[in-house]
Amino acid sequence: LNGPVCAAWCVSLIGSLPQVFIFSRVEVAPGVYDCWAQFIKPWGLRAYVTWTTLVIFVVPVLIVIVCQVRICCAVHTSFHVKTQQSAEEPVSKPMTSR
Questions:
Q1: What is the DSSP letter of 85?
Q2: Quick check: pTM over 0.70?
Q3: Burial class (CB in 10 A: 0-12, 13-18, 19+), 51
Q4: Smallest Cα–Cα separation from 55: which of 14, 24, 27, 89?
Q5: Is the pLDDT of residue 98 over 70?
Q6: Whole-angstrom Cα distance, residue 43 to residue 90?
Q7: Rounded CA gap, 33 and 14, in Å?
Q8: DSSP type of residue 90
Q9: What is the percentage of the chain residues whose pLDDT exceeds 70?
Q10: What is the DSSP string of 13-79?
């Protein structure tokens, strides 16, 4: 099994756990059912919105930022090392045409 894929699925499962406890099937009319959320008053809705915002937006954005910074640092370091190496090498003779 692929470890990162399994980890992503586990994180997704944990992030979606509140849905299991909040949403349920409610009869809105005789014989008509709909999915409704039932929150604990007065803080339930606020906690749900906060959790959803963190899990769906804030945490992924932070992960992307960290990854992008690491990529930029690696590119910068690689570029700097290659620039230093090319500066230290002697200038080669130009190739003559035939």
A1: H
A2: no
A3: middle
A4: 14
A5: no
A6: 70
A7: 27
A8: P
A9: 90
A10: HHHHHHHHHHEEEEEEETTEEEEEE---TTTHHHHHHHHHHIIIIIHHHHHHHHHHHHHHHHHHHHH
